[in-house]
Amino acid sequence: MAQLQAVLSCPSSNFVFHASKRSDSFRDKLCCLGKSSSFQELGVRSSGLHGSALVHHRGNLAQASTGRAIQAVLSSEKETDVSTSPKGGLRGRLNKVVLAYSGGLDTSVIVPWLRENYGCEVVCFTADVGQGIKELEGLEAKAKASGACQLVVKDLKEEFVRDYIFPCLRAGAIYERKYLLGTSMARPVIAKAMVDVAKEVGADAVSHGCTGKGNDQVRFELAFFALNPELNVVAPWREWDITGREDAIEYAKKHNVPVPVTKKSIYSRDRNLWHISHEGDILEDPSNEPKKDMYMMTVDPEDAPDQPEYIEIGIVSGLPVSVNGTELSPAALLSALNDIGGRHGIGRIDMVENRLVGMKSRGVYETPGGTILFTAARELESLTLDRETLQTKDTLAFKYAESVYAGRWFDPLREAMDAFMESITKTTTGSVTLKLYKGSVTVTGRKSPYSLYRQDISSFESGDIYNQADAAGFIRLYGLPMRVRAMLEKGI
Fold this sequence. Notes:
Layout: H1 2-8, E1 14-17, E2 30-33, E3 54-58, E4 61-64, E5 69-72, E6 77-81, E7 96-100, H2 105-118, E8 121-128, H3 139-146, E9 150-155, H4 157-171, H5 182-201, E10 205-207, H6 216-227, E11 232-234, H7 245-254, E12 268-271, E13 276-279, E14 309-316, E15 319-323, E16 326-327, H8 330-343, E17 348-354, E18 360-366, H9 368-384, H10 387-405, H11 412-424, E19 430-437, E20 440-447, H12 455-458, H13 470-478, H14 480-489
Helix pairs in contact: 2-7, 4-5, 4-8, 4-11, 5-6, 8-9, 10-11
């Protein structure tokens, strides 16, 4: 204890406590590190849990051991040693980790890797966001065979559409002119559910299988930070030595983890109720045309019905509520439109986008129902919003889309923009009639009880409200700056 007091007398130091293999003793040395020591110097990576790493929390300085803890106050920080707990892993000690789990090769391997490297229990979590029943079959058996203590599955389809998709739809959020944000909107609802599950099961960490090159790692982790900053985050792809599929298969065999027997797609895909994305293989060359058999939600427009189909979308306060007069829940409505749009080849997008991490990537997206809804919502606004409001909305829609794409769903700015969108679309109520034909969506009619369109004003026939002679004075005033400039140039 005298040694501890002596070390604590160094006010400018950070500490690493090396626990003894015996829980009631601290015979190992106490290291006093100067202010200049950084986490990089200590070998700390993104998870903050490597080797003799220190995990930072606000408050006190605590040493984690198997049965006892020593706390001391220093510079208003608490640092927990996770390096040498007798029940710890190679990289540290965690109690329980909630893993975003799909049942594929990567997440199947992550389960034993977490147990080996962090000495923790692993709770697998799967969110049903409409990826399809086949993706959910046999998951519990797979998870437990990989070493997980349990699998938690939550049906998030209604929440996903109601609280994430529909606000983006109301805002008119489209990233880089084309992308309807299918993956971007799904990540925060999944991350939120993971944080909730972590609280329910008493986990002290969360983990995901996102690579260090993609956008999803940012989206997940920003959500974790916003919803529970005390949770540790473990990102194996930024830590482990596995570099590809063959390495992962070898690791799985070594740890007796059954390798998923499903045929690996040549494409990297992400599917939910809003869309499906395709990346990789021949798509990595932007000059290559996608193969016809790649698409999964939509038929080739060339093979679509030779007769057009008309549908009517009912909208209340900027949000869709019905299809052809039938009111549906958010998820049921979107699912119905996916079927209708899919058989007409609606919603195919091929684009090169700028990822958040700096590189460009080429992706092909299918968003049949979403494309129909975006067309309908924007068209109804042409009746209900005045020019200045519509222009301001379009300006903010651009920023809104960027915020969602960049993983800032729970950012105050996005929430403030959403409040603006909700306010200005209170009168965006009515219906839009659309014609679907061989990949195209054409508006054929729109109506609203709050329409700002007045036939008695807009008609070419004479009316009492608008006097055409008034336009002469308006034009003279509106064009005054141009007249003054021309007078200057001509010396008048």
